[in-house]
Amino acid sequence: MSSTIISLPDQTTARLPRKSYLNQEYGLKSWLLTGDHKRIAILYLISITFFFIIGGILAGLIRMELLTPAADLMATDTYNKVFSMHGIIMIFLFLVPSVPATIGNFLIPLMVGARDLAFPKINLLSWYLYVIGGIFILAAMVLGGVDTGWTFTTPLSTHYLNTHVVTAAMGIFIAGFASIFTGLNFIVTVHRMRCPGMTWFRLPLFVWGHYATSIIMILGTPVLAITLVLVAMERLFDIGVFDPTKGGDPLLFQHLFWFYSHPAVYIMILPGMAVISEVISTFSRKRVFGYTAVAFSSVAIAVFGFLVWEHHMFIMGVSQYSALVFSLLTMLVAVPSAIKIFNWAMTMYQGSITFETPMLYAFGFFGLFTIGGLTGVFLATMGMDIHLTETYFVVAHFHFVMVGGMLMAYLAGIHFWWPKMTGRMYPEAISKLAAVVTFIGFIVTFFPQFLLGYLGMPRRYAAYPADFQVLNVFSTAGASILGIGYLLPLFYLPWSLIYGKIAGDNPWQATGLEWQIQSPPLTENFVEIPIMDHEAYDYEWLANKTQHEVQTVG
Amino acid sequence: MDLHNETVEHNRAEHAGEMHIVRPPVYLGIFFALLVLTALTTGMSYVDLGVFNAVIALAIACFKASLVVLFFMHIHYSSRLLKMTVGAGLFTFMLLISLTMTDYISRAWGRF
Predict the structure, then answer these.
(1) Based on the domain organization, do B11 and B58 belong to the same domain?
(2) CB-defined contacts A:B, below 8 A
(3) Which of A26, A118, A222, A349 pairs as cysteine with A188 (C-beta 3.0–4.6 A)?
């Protein structure tokens, strides 16, 4: 129960290592043809940041349009394209790869004590597929956009629209394989490349979270891929799968699409939870309370995630008996999520908590994810759902989970492992400010949307009754605060690459294997493959090790 | 160090298990079985069995797919972990079909 008091190391004596993965080789080619999981993680980091900026600008445009009740900033069909592209880019090109492909790619081998992922070339291929998929989606946007919404609803997408549906669908199809390859790599690495002594229940919870995510990536993504191929084939060759005029069934599309896209929500949140487990433990100086329960709850979320998709379809004319079953199953997902939240709270209980930036982001995650998760239970209740579906309540709900939950966790992770990735510290004061500004901006943006939705404002409309304006003005004002919160790291993180304080090997005094090696790590990660002789999050072990460590100078 | 050696030994043993060499007669046998089953599918399509035409065609197709997975893809000779991996895919597919069917079969209940 008790926490171990550990004093943070003196960073004035820290020196950058002479050799690391960053200076092993130089030149563009050494990056573009690398097999090093750490360099691929950096490539992913740069590309997802690029797409996040584009998606963010589109979000800004949506909020600008909704500042006034009339559709006056852009034409209504342009508005349809803007929110569709915002959804497609943010989900498929940012949220799905956000933590796994960047932080996960960087850390999984380090955490299990391996020199790289199991298939380095497939890992690189994954990045190339992601970029090609991204180019397709950008092309769809530049050539005139897609206005189906990110959900590609049929027969709207297959029959009625004359926009770049096929190009965007192909982009998602290709980017989907990037995600499958990442999942495959993680699963094989966790099974086959753990260092001696690293049993399943000594793995950091970060690895458990990513393992669960990988299961969904591999089992779910092919269904989305084939569904989008069917959409493309129906558009191009008029086969009647989804279009009722040709003998198809539009609800079949919804079943197939949400069979992936609901579990995809867990692809987006599980890695975030994985980050939070590490951050909470480190800044409470305590082993994660209920380690086994937290580990299994990740797998439980991955499995339950496949059993609930029909709750997206309650008002679409599905069988009411079937809807009852799915309503019940949906509420069951709240159980493993609550297990995590309660265990994290218990981890902090009697811990020696400090409030560094990653911890502030983690606190943001707690509050926002809990609100997002609990409003999900509202929506799972069929009676409420009929009133709230397709309103801003749903928009607020999934933004609380995806942005409030995942993006907070992503930023917590980026700040937490920034010293390991770059060897330098981010500036503490301004990053704390960014964490607080993000939290405030987020609440002001999305909380009014719960009210708007409850009052009946539908989503995906450019115009709304004048009564709703006050809350919409709040939301847009909040979005500009949120924008500042996201812009700050975009400036100070690159700044810290040159001017940041040198971090040293283990600036947080965390217990993971990744913190026991130099920062930034060598290309081979470990000089000698480590032997795991203690439990995960064993701060006693770390305190003893630090005490007996021989300090070499020079 | 012992621990390390044990793991290496363990990995080598598992690795050896994966390197099962399948003799050409097995491949040829499966190949001809697939051809015969294809002919059977074609033949059955000429017999009018009502709804059972589709049932039989799908059953034969499933059987052929199993042959391919088990022998051409070596799952028959693979470790239990790999068998379970394939099983997980099938299980997910069954989830997709069965839970979707909960909607389709009960959609018209109470309307007659």
Answers:
(1) yes
(2) 50
(3) A118
Same domain, residue pair B36 and B52: yes
By Cβ distance, the residue of A197, A321, A531 closest to B106 is: A321
For B12-58, the three-class secondary structure string (H helix, E strand, C coil) is: HHHHHHHCCCCCHHHHHHHHHHHHHHHHHHHHHCCCCCCCHHHHHHH
Q: Give the separation between CA A224 and CA A32, rounded to whole angstroms.
A: 29
Are A488 and A432 in contact, with CB atoms under 8 Å apart? Answer: no
Separation between Cα atoms, residue A119 and residue A106, nearest integer Å: 14
Over residues A188-235, the pLDDT tens digits come to 999 999 999 999 999 999 999 999 999 999 999 999 999 999 999 999
State whether B52 and B9 are in the same domain.
yes
Q: A260 to chain B: nearest residue by CA?
A: B96
Asked if residue B35 and residue B18 are part of one domain, the reply reads yes
What tokens does A122 get?
Answer: 């497939």
CB contacts, 8 Å: A325 with chain B: 102
Asked if B92 and B54 sit in the same domain, the reply is no
Q: Write the DSSP string, A165-197.
A: HHHHHHHHHHHHHHHHHHHHHHHHHHHH-PPTT
> Which residues in chain B touch residue A251, judged by CB atoms under 8 angstroms apart?
103
CB contact under 8 A, B107 and A319: yes
Are residues B18 and B59 both part of a single domain? yes
Flag if A318 and B81 touch (Cβ within 8 Å). no
How far from chain centre, in Å, is Cα A98?
Answer: 5
Segment A526-539, tens digit of pLDDT: 999 999 999 999 99
Which of A264, A70, A73 has its CA nearest to residue A183?
A264
Q: Is the ipTM of this complex over 0.90?
A: no
pLDDT of A275-316, one tens digit each? 999 999 999 999 999 999 999 999 999 999 999 999 999 999
Tell me how far CA of residue A223 lies from CA of A156, A174, A233, A254, A474, in angstroms. Answer: 20, 13, 15, 12, 39
Domain containing B90 equals 79-112
Q: Are residues B106 and B73 in the same domain?
A: no
Q: Could you tell me which of A118, A345, A126, A114 has the C-alpha nearest to residue A221?
A: A126
Residue of A nearest to B102 (CA): A322
Cβ contact A81:A145 at 8 Å: yes
* Chain A interface disruption, residue of B8, B85, B103, most A CBs within 10 A: B103
| CA pair distance A18, B63, nearest whole angstrom | 60
Pick the CATH number of A35-543 from 1.20.210.10, 3.30.1050.10, 3.40.50.970, 1.20.58.220: 1.20.210.10
A462 neighbors A71 (Cβ within 8 angstroms): yes
Q: How many Cα atoms occupy the beta-carbon half-sphere of A494 within 13 Å? A: 7
Same domain, B56 and B89: no
The number of folded domains in chain B is 2
Contact A255, B98 (CB under 8 A): no
For A318, name the nearest residue in chain B, comparing CA atoms only.
B103
